[in-house]
Amino acid sequence: FEESELTFTDESLRAIAREALEHGTGARGLRSICERVLQDVMYDMPEHEGASTVTVRASDITGETKPEIVAAQEEEKQSA
User: Fold this and answer.
1) Which residues make beta-bridge pairs with 7?
2) pLDDT digits over 11-63, tens only?
3) Confidence (pLDDT) at 38
4) C-beta of residue 4 within 8 angstroms of C-beta of residue 45
5) What global pTM score does this model have?
6) Which residues on neighbouring strands pair with residue 71, listed in sequence order?
7) What per-residue confidence (pLDDT) applies to 15?
8) Is 76's pLDDT higher than 80?
9) What gap in Å lies between CA 5 and CA 2, rounded to an integer?
10) Euclidean distance between the first and the last CA atom of the chain, given in angstroms as a whole number
11) Sheet with 5-8, edge to edge strand ranges
């Protein structure tokens, strides 16, 4: 969705770089890592109405967790 926001924690960026270095890949490797991590998000986003925030953490890069999707309505409830 165009209105959605994608954020990477500093730790996730380090994990992406570390994985690319371990595999000896360059920019294409960085891209494939991001695509792998965000593949499920691309399919899950249509379920969330309106704007959403997706946060990628280091544990998402290592496969321990999946990126967190928070719909705009949920963000409004949390800040109220």
Assistant:
1) 55
2) 999 999 999 999 998 888 899 999 999 999 888 877 776 778 999 999 999 99
3) 94
4) yes
5) 0.80
6) 52
7) 96
8) no
9) 8
10) 24
11) 5-8, 52-56, 68-71
Q: Mapped to the 3 state alphabet, what secondary structure does the chain carry?
A: CCCCEEEECHHHHHHHHHHHHHHCCCHHHHHHHHHHHHHHHHHHHHHCCCCEEEEECHHHHCCCCCCEEEEHHHHHHHHC
Q: Nearest-CA neighbor of 16 among 35, 40, 2, 1?
A: 35
In the predicted structure, residue 71 carries a pLDDT above the cut 70: yes
Q: Name the phi and psi angles at 68, rounded to 5.
A: -85, 130
Determine the residue type at 19: E
